[in-house]
Design a protein that fits this description.
Two copies of one chain form a homodimer. Chain A is α+β, with helices and mostly antiparallel strands. Chain A has two domains: about 140 residues, Nucleoside Triphosphate Pyrophosphohydrolase, CATH 3.90.79; about 90 residues, Arc Repressor Mutant, subunit A. Chain A is about 30% helix and about 25% strand. The first copy, chain A, is built from seven helices and ten strands. In chain A, strands 2, 3, 4, 5, 6, 7 and 8 form a seven-stranded mixed beta sheet that branches. Chain A is elongated, with a radius of gyration of 21 Å. Chain A starts with a strand and ends in a 7-residue tail after the last helix. About 5% of the residues of chain A have low confidence. The interface between A and B is medium-sized, with 33 and 33 residues. Strand 1 of chain A pairs antiparallel with strand 1 of chain B. Chain A binds a DNA duplex through helix 6.
Chain lengths: ~250, ~250
DNA sequence: GCAAAAGTGTTGTGAGTACACCCATGT
DNA sequence: ACATGGGTGTACTCACAACACTTTTGC
């Protein structure tokens, strides 16, 4: 498609950037590529690239993500735009920031590999990115926007489960909440909120409904690679979630 | 700036669109212009226009807003992007949607007048826009995005007061909440949540704090143009708000 | 006095919190 | 047995809902 394109008014270049968050069981990490070319050659950057004429912004983000990192089939959400005048030294560029979530199974599945302009890919701790200066362009700002958007939705939507494998322990779920909301929770109360309070069993309110019985369902499986009491594995029970949402807004807030 | 601009790769045109919400005391309305030119000549559209090379997206939105409608000094917030391939029949255009809030004093201050490419301006009821098909381009979608973003922030931030004059009645405040969240509230409980529960007076909790005493302060003034008991006027008490936010998250939710 | 709307009081429910306690497993 | 962490019980507080009641004004 390289050639010469003529317009009566100046136009900025338009790119998308993707902030892919992953949870490895302990920390939130972000998928980055090492830049192969100037500017910022050798520095870490978000996957992303230029919008083509026959695709939407979201399609562009998905395409670039696949081309550079091999990540496919993700649900992208828009976090905002970056439009500083000199954010790219080459030319005027505005960028639309998307983000998505991967669980550890997918992070380390082997499908995610550096390709195309990406020299190599790496998973870097979110904290490190937010406190340091390791990213090219204004990509730190992009990560901030994506993270803020994510955290803001946590109490309203079941986004935390997108960071967890299909089967997970409550400890892991709590860890995700604590990382995203930057606070700690009482272990016992967190458990009850998610699984359901056993004291509610049998108790029936005047209108015939039971108390909140939680949104997690025990799989029966048990985590075996531990030195102590193994945790049970749970799954997110979409059906229960939908029931609770219909009756009254369930919220994930504390 | 008209001339000839050459690029090695094709570039989309970039515009901003502004959804300006106003509350007239009864309904939420949106500021629109009547299009002077094709495409969609004569149809209603959001104010907005093309990004220039030496301005950010937000600056562009502010400039276009001022040029077309006379609206200045507003706090813009970003609602999302529109990037459908054929959303503008002339050329590929992507648009970034911003929104802001005006109170009725400003809506009808006389400063807001059609200028530049805008043939005329009008305030149209939000409901009418969301249910009908009166808007040019995909601007209905833009209004939806802006409204969803606004409503989502209502419970967390004191945005409702941006739709109200400096001095307002509790009834008006409740009306805003009901319109934005599309539900009704108990009048008595709403009053107490905002002004503070009088039964809390004197009561002190064990740690020395009083109960929530509300975020509104009575101005002493009274609404006189009524046939019945007049409402008191209140103001949003930023200081109380900040105090409550420091101690524990105050939320505007019900 | 009556209508209409502002504002107060009172009670119950249930979610959230704090924290003590019990249970299961590997070494 | 004991260390470690999973899981339960219980009592208290407070925000919210429901709704009855009182107050203030114009006609």
């Amino acid at each position: 498609m390289e050639g010469s394109y003529n317009y009566r008014f100046p136009r900025p270049a338009v790119t998308t950037d993707c902030v892919i968050f992953g949870f490895d069981g302990n920390k939130i990490k972000v998928l980055l590529i090492t830049r192969e070319n100037e500017p910022f050659k050798g520095k870490l950057a978000l996957p992303g690239g230029f919008l083509e004429m026959e695709e939407t912004l979201e399609a562009c983000a998905l395409r670039e993500l696949k081309e550079e990192t091999g990540v496919t089939e993700v649900r992208l959400r828009e976090a905002g735009t970056l439009s500083g005048i000199d954010r790219d030294p080459r030319t005027r560029v505005i960028s639309i920031v998307f983000y998505s979530l991967l669980n550890s199974d997918r992070m380390y599945s082997g499908d995610i590999i550096a390709q195309s302009d990406a020299k190599e890919i790496s998973w870097v701790e979110l904290d490190e990115l937010l406190s340091g200066d390791r990213l090219a362009f204004d990509h730190k700002k992009a990560v901030q926007m994506a993270f803020a958007n994510l955290a803001g939705r946590l109490n309203k939507e079941p986004v935390a489960f997108e960071l967890l494998n299909d089967v997970f322990t409550i400890k892991e779920l709590q860890r995700v909440y604590e990382l995203l909301l930057n606070r700690s929770f009482d272990r016992a109360n967190f458990h009850k909120k998610m699984v359901g309070d056993p004291t509610a069993k049998g108790k029936v309110k005047k209108n015939g409904r039971k108390k909140n019985t939680g949104i997690l369902t025990d799989t029966g499986e048990v985590m075996k690679d531990t030195k102590h009491k193994p945790a049970k594995y749970y799954i997110f029970d979409l059906q229960k979630y939908n029931e609770l949402m219909e009756k009254e807004d369930f919220n994930f807030g504390f």
